Amino acid sequence: MENKLKQLKEILAECVDLMYAGALLEWDQQCYMPTGGSEARSYQMATLKRLAHQRLTSSETGQLLEDLKPYAEQLDPDSDDACLLKVAQRRYDKNVKVPSELVMEFARAAGASHVVWTKAKAENKFSDFQPYLEKIIALRRQYADCFAPYTHVYDPLLDDFEAGLKTADVQAIFADLRAQQVSLLQEIAARPQVDASFLFLNFDEQKQWDFGVEAITKIGYNWECGRQDKAVHPFTSNFSSGDVRITTRLTPDYLGTALFGTLHECGHALYELGVNPAYDRSLLGGGASLAIHESQSRLWENLVGRSFPFWQYFYPRLQEYFPAQFSNVSLETFYKGINQVSPSLIRVEADEATYNLHIMLRLELEIALMEGSLEVKDLPEAWNARMKDYLGVAPSTDSEGVLQDIHWSNGYIGYFSTYALGNLISAQLWERIQTDIPDLADQIRRGEFAPLLGWLREKIHHHGSKYEPQDLVQQVTGSKINAAPYMRYLRAKYSEIYGL
Amino acid sequence: MENKLKQLKEILAECVDLMYAGALLEWDQQCYMPTGGSEARSYQMATLKRLAHQRLTSSETGQLLEDLKPYAEQLDPDSDDACLLKVAQRRYDKNVKVPSELVMEFARAAGASHVVWTKAKAENKFSDFQPYLEKIIALRRQYADCFAPYTHVYDPLLDDFEAGLKTADVQAIFADLRAQQVSLLQEIAARPQVDASFLFLNFDEQKQWDFGVEAITKIGYNWECGRQDKAVHPFTSNFSSGDVRITTRLTPDYLGTALFGTLHECGHALYELGVNPAYDRSLLGGGASLAIHESQSRLWENLVGRSFPFWQYFYPRLQEYFPAQFSNVSLETFYKGINQVSPSLIRVEADEATYNLHIMLRLELEIALMEGSLEVKDLPEAWNARMKDYLGVAPSTDSEGVLQDIHWSNGYIGYFSTYALGNLISAQLWERIQTDIPDLADQIRRGEFAPLLGWLREKIHHHGSKYEPQDLVQQVTGSKINAAPYMRYLRAKYSEIYGL
B17 and A44: CB-CB below 8 Å? Predict the structure, then answer.
């Protein structure tokens, strides 16, 4: 049995190698690839995806898993091997239902559409992107149909990013959340606006970069196991627990993009860097799910990075980087400014009070596209109408609207809701952390991040993908994913800032 | 039969995808990978290599090739399909003799040793690198033994880089060449030295970069299908005919490194960029061999880039970039300076009169290592002794000696002689070009490179790997690879510069 387990691990290691090689191709595509490389790259990515899929779903893998079932039952259910077998079985069962040809075709379609989207966004031409997105939606429907009968056509997609979660679960959580978010937003809108104009001055890009580097170095990002590059749409990539890279975007006339974007991606990276290195080349490596991942990025970006104690420590340094912009802005004014609530067009730059509404809009549109009640050609109109409805603003161009996010161009349908779920989980964790580290605020005020990072490593990072995301949340916080802690956090914060 | 051919092409396309994905992993390893990524990367590269090897040598591939034999015989032997079948058969026959496990083990050993070599070179510690190189040599012997009986243990390695060429062929060419090179060198040494001190001043790195970019843009490098990055040991990588990247190294106190290095890599890149795009994802894609490749890089670096007409065009621009260094240096003085002959330690910076001697030294050491007449631990001593013998200089550190080149750390044994062969071929081509483009010098003087590039594209680049390298040389120049044109070229050039 030990020998069979070894064989299985070797097969899975090969799949992981292929997946991470593919991840590097994607990283390169977004950071450095010249446009001429696009077509061949889409083939290369598709081949890697297909081979990983073939290997994972081979009859050899299936047989090994079958043979190992009695062995798995004898193991301590919390042991790494037992969890690995569970995760592998789950992945096998799901993937074996999907033909390799479909995996390949989808990967190629996604690869090819990326460059088209980049250009369409730059030139504000949704019509150029439309046929590519239509193809992606059609292929995603075919994919979902591999799992028929399903409760909802969107379930198999969501499950890829958030194992075990159902469309109905998310809809229930969001229904609860939406009313509370809208009501909070109305209360804030009734109060006098805070000033944030000092964030929209001219900021030297190199200095923005340098400050970001200084901040994440202090927090604990390990440059021997990572690097930062520029990307149109920032993201984090990991190729092992020893190579976790972030990207950032610099906007010369708005400080917030790089500042909070860098903290956000660093949060993702700290997660991957903290995974047990013994899980490298195994299905237990990497974060547990996208929502858990987002809980880490949003925690560092918002609960830490937009907190008063954080800026008690870092604001004097920021003032040294940008004396002209900040010498006459008090810490209190700066703190309020970076927490200004103002419904806006771009999700990644949305404040905490409006962010989840951007997500809800996307989830609803994706579900409608998958159900077939919305056609791709009608997407810009539907987008704009819903923006107006939820946020009271509508984009004047598709580049600022339906084309803003990279996800659909990469074929990621089913991904967005994990952002909002991550927000909720971050607050659930935060409440627990406050209990376990009572002097957290004082530590942060002194620039001491090691205890916080240590807590996250022990409770979340170390486990990698060992536990299913909802089990992990339950295990660490004692509750399922729910909106209450996040709404408590928002309400407390904005009550103080806006005097609700 | 058409269907079988299609199936075979699909398998080969997959192999090519895997090879180019692996090439990107290697590019990244040398340009951007943080050190923490090293171990996982070596596994990833090994997995890609092993899968490509498995696919290429599968019984399915073998059967398709067998089935297609009668079909191949009916084809026009010069047709793409006939050539593809020939190349595929050759690759299959060679690779099927090598166990996949050995491919994997070798790839991992090579991957792991790269980082060790980088560090050993930086710290001048050959002893750290020694066990890795011993492992590589041992694995290369195992590899060679897969092809026993062979005439020479080095033959199978050489054949990987230069299909069809034998160790004895190279030794014969080099024996002829060595005497002539040494004699020329002695004649030059007897003449007064020319001044090159103006190349060893301080040169702003950004300006060096910018001038290089300007020069290769003018020559015809297409930035939509490529990019330039910095690397410790410059190289060119291609991932398709639409994505061919170069790297360069900037030395602040010596202009020659970046100047000629950039032209050299651009020469490689122009080759790959000129391959028939229809050969993408096929074994006919990519350059025909390393020697043909080197003929292109050396042609642009030396026969063009160190010629008087080239600098008649570019020197005024260079003076604009570096007025302090060159305003008082005449074109004639500059031209002589960049062609100064001076035996030195570093191969990549060697002048044209001594370069091939560096190569001969490496070839002899590699052969001795493979034969077992030299042990790795004795390599530094053997290196230094031979440097003294051939070039009259010996390194004071291993970093400047046996550790200088990246090749052995990557497992490339059998590679070096192609550099000298490339020099010879470049001169063979150059004589033919002079006949076909009688006013070439005037064109270059006017900064017109399109006719030259067009000639190379038509005669060499376009064909990719369709023809075996020696056949291609014969076809284009009417002769086999030989030293006469190169020695004629060197003698003419140095007679003028040194007044021989």
Answer: yes
Task: Count CB atoms within 10 A of the CB of residue A276.
Answer: 17
Is A33 an interface residue toward B (CB < 8 Å)?
A: yes
Set of chain B residues whose Cβ sits within 8 Å of the Cβ of A38: 242
Return the minimum-mean-pLDDT range out of A105-109, A315-319, B243-247: A105-109
Kindly provide the ipTM of the predicted complex, given to two decimals. Answer: 0.92
The rounded distance, in Å, linking the Cα atoms of B39 and A236 is 20
Long-range contacts of B416-419 (CB under 8 A, 24+ apart): B416/B359, B416/B362, B416/B363, B416/B366, B417/B158, B417/B162, B417/B170, B417/B174, B417/B359, B417/B362, B417/B363, B418/B161, B418/B162, B418/B289, B418/B290, B418/B291, B418/B293, B418/B294, B419/B290, B419/B294, B419/B298, B419/B355, B419/B359
Distance CA A259, CA A287 (A): 24
pLDDT at A348: 87
Question: Mutating which of A12, A15, A32, A229 best tests the B interface, going by the most B Cβ atoms within 10 A?
Answer: A32
- Is the full-model pTM beyond 0.95? no
Verify whether the Cβ–Cβ distance A24 to B20 is below 8 Å: no
Residue numbers in A near B243 (CB within 8 A) = 33-34, 36-37, 40-41
CATH architecture for residues A167-498: Orthogonal Bundle (1.10)
Dihedral angle over CA of A264, A270, A275, A281, nearest 10? 80
* Distance to chain B for A15, nearest Cα, Å: 9
pLDDT at A407 over 90: yes
Which of A36, A225, A240 lies closest to B243 in CB terms?
A36
> Quick check: A42 contacting B, CB < 8 Å?
no
The sheet with strand A236-240 has its strands ordered as A228-230, A243-248, A236-240
Nearest CA-CA distance, residue B453 and chain A, Å: 20
Pick among B9, B10, B11, B14 to test the A interface (most A CBs inside 10 A): B14
Query: How many other CB atoms are there within 10 angstroms of residue B399's CB atom?
Result: 17
Q: Which residues of A are designated catalytic?
A: 265
What tokens does B79 get? 């047709």
**Other residues' Cβ atoms within 10 Å of the Cβ of residue A214:** 14
Closest residue in chain A to residue B281, using alpha carbons only: A40
> What pLDDT, on a 0 to 100 scale, did the predictor assign at position B232?
84
Q: Tens digits of per-residue pLDDT, B438-492?
A: 999 999 999 999 999 999 999 999 999 999 999 999 999 999 999 999 999 999 9
Helices B417-436, B167-189: inter-axial angle, 10-degree rounding: 70
Q: How far is B25 from chain A (nearest CA, A)?
A: 7
pLDDT digits (tens, 9 = 90+) for A179-226: 999 999 999 999 999 999 999 999 999 999 999 999 999 999 999 999
Determine the residue among A19, A41, A44 to mutate to test chain B binding: the one whose Cβ has the most chain B Cβ atoms within 10 Å: A44
- Does the beta carbon of B18 lie under 8 angstroms from any beta carbon of chain A? yes
Cβ separation of A34 and B240 shorter than 8 Å?
no
DSSP string, A238-301: EEETTEEEEEE---TT-SHHHHHHHHHHHHHHHHHHTS-GGGTTSTT-S-S-HHHHHHHHHIII
User: What residue type is A89 in one-letter code?
Assistant: Q
Q: Which residues contact B245 (CB under 8 A, 6 or more apart)?
A: A34, B27, B226, B227, B228, B229, B236, B237, B238, B239, B269
- Cβ separation A240–B13 shorter than 8 A: no
CB B281 within 8 A of CB A40: yes
Write down the catalytic residue from B26, B162, B265, B366. Answer: B265
**Contact B293/B301 with Cβ under 8 angstroms?**
no
In which residue ranges of chain A is CATH 1.10.1370.30 found?
A: 167-498
Is the CB of B48 less than 8 angstroms away from the CB of A21? yes
